[in-house]
Amino acid sequence: MKDVVVIKCGGSTIAELSDEFFKSVVAMQKNGKHPIVVHGGGPAINHLLQKLDIKSEFVDGLRKTTEDVLDTAEMVLCGKVNKQVVTSLHQAGGQAVGLSGCDGSLLEVKPVNEGMLGYVGEPTKVNTSLLTSLMELKMIPVIAPIGMNEEGTHYNVNADSAAAAIAKELGAEQLVFVTDVDGILKDGKCLEQVTADEIESYIKDGTIYGGMLPKVRAALSTLTGNIQSVMIMNGKSTNVGEDGSVQGTTIIKSKMKLFVS
Ligand SMILES: Nc1ncnc2c1ncn2[C@@H]1O[C@H](COP(=O)(O)OP(=O)(O)O)[C@@H](O)[C@H]1O
Ligand SMILES: CC(=O)N[C@@H](CCC(=O)OP(=O)(O)O)C(=O)O
């Protein structure tokens, strides 16, 4: 679908997103784009797990998910965070509909590595017709990253990979990761542009780790179709330039070679 913009709001920054941020998503729609919000909620899940005294750990940015962790993640993502985002868009003057990947078989998934990670899923199929119908009704879909396999088993999906799968399947024009850092940082500085090869070397040398890993992997997985670049930016409004341009890191497949005759 033309003019689709997938915006992934990280759990690291959701609580700090300003009214202006949500107004800009609504304005985007009024200007003819079709925004879709996919949200995370890692810190909120951590908080409830701690309260319930349930242990969890991360492997390469993915949360090992037992049945208890899955129940908790689903309660937080679908019950709390999803409705907070829907409410914020409503207050910003938009019409938003909250869904999880289980609704309308939106996100079909398979386990990533059941032995090591438990109920962690990766998307295999996206029901784009549901999203297209909502967007035609001028609704902004707000998606919580819980998916389901064909048998109806629920899985915890990293929100970055959910956003990438949705953007790819819809042939989105743009994919933006909104997070709690200005972009990909190296030696304390935000990189303006990085290629797939540079990302591989930054993963190897430890520059990119933890929660940034699923983000860059998801970004790279989308750079095959319509999407020419993926942006990682800070949820705080301070990184909008004076001319209104958005600052952050742009991920591209490779740099164009310049031939000089
Ligand atoms: N090279 C890097 N540049 C910036 N952040 C990085 C880098 N490597 C790892 N990170 C970590 O990734 C985090 C963002 O991922 P995450 O906490 O999962 O956020 P979100 O909830 O927005 O998905 C940053 O806060 C930082 O701790
Ligand atoms: C499998 C896996 O890691 N799922 C994530 C889902 C939420 C998420 O991705 O939230 P962020 O965007 O805040 O990282 C988790 O349980 O934390």
UniProtKB/TrEMBL annotation:
<feature type="binding site">
    <location>
        <position position="63"/>
    </location>
    <ligand>
        <name>substrate</name>
    </ligand>
</feature>
<protein>
    <recommendedName>
        <fullName>Acetylglutamate kinase</fullName>
        <ecNumber>2.7.2.8</ecNumber>
    </recommendedName>
</protein>
<feature type="binding site">
    <location>
        <begin position="41"/>
        <end position="42"/>
    </location>
    <ligand>
        <name>substrate</name>
    </ligand>
</feature>
<comment type="pathway">
    <text>Amino-acid biosynthesis; L-arginine biosynthesis; N(2)-acetyl-L-ornithine from L-glutamate: step 2/4.</text>
</comment>
<dbReference type="GO" id="GO:0005524">
    <property type="term" value="F:ATP binding"/>
</dbReference>
<keyword id="KW-0808">Transferase</keyword>
<dbReference type="InterPro" id="IPR004662">
    <property type="entry name" value="AcgluKinase_fam"/>
</dbReference>
<keyword id="KW-0067">ATP-binding</keyword>
<keyword id="KW-0547">Nucleotide-binding</keyword>
<keyword id="KW-0028">Amino-acid biosynthesis</keyword>
<comment type="function">
    <text>Catalyzes the ATP-dependent phosphorylation of N-acetyl-L-glutamate.</text>
</comment>
<feature type="site" description="Transition state stabilizer">
    <location>
        <position position="215"/>
    </location>
</feature>
<feature type="binding site">
    <location>
        <position position="156"/>
    </location>
    <ligand>
        <name>substrate</name>
    </ligand>
</feature>
<feature type="site" description="Transition state stabilizer">
    <location>
        <position position="8"/>
    </location>
</feature>
<dbReference type="InterPro" id="IPR037528">
    <property type="entry name" value="ArgB"/>
</dbReference>
<dbReference type="InterPro" id="IPR001048">
    <property type="entry name" value="Asp/Glu/Uridylate_kinase"/>
</dbReference>
<keyword id="KW-0963">Cytoplasm</keyword>
<dbReference type="GO" id="GO:0042450">
    <property type="term" value="P:L-arginine biosynthetic process via ornithine"/>
</dbReference>
<dbReference type="InterPro" id="IPR036393">
    <property type="entry name" value="AceGlu_kinase-like_sf"/>
</dbReference>
<keyword id="KW-0055">Arginine biosynthesis</keyword>
<dbReference type="GO" id="GO:0003991">
    <property type="term" value="F:acetylglutamate kinase activity"/>
</dbReference>
<dbReference type="GO" id="GO:0005737">
    <property type="term" value="C:cytoplasm"/>
</dbReference>
<keyword id="KW-0418">Kinase</keyword>
<comment type="similarity">
    <text>Belongs to the acetylglutamate kinase family. ArgB subfamily.</text>
</comment>
<feature type="domain" description="Aspartate/glutamate/uridylate kinase">
    <location>
        <begin position="4"/>
        <end position="234"/>
    </location>
</feature>
<dbReference type="InterPro" id="IPR001057">
    <property type="entry name" value="Glu/AcGlu_kinase"/>
</dbReference>
<dbReference type="Pfam" id="PF00696">
    <property type="entry name" value="AA_kinase"/>
</dbReference>
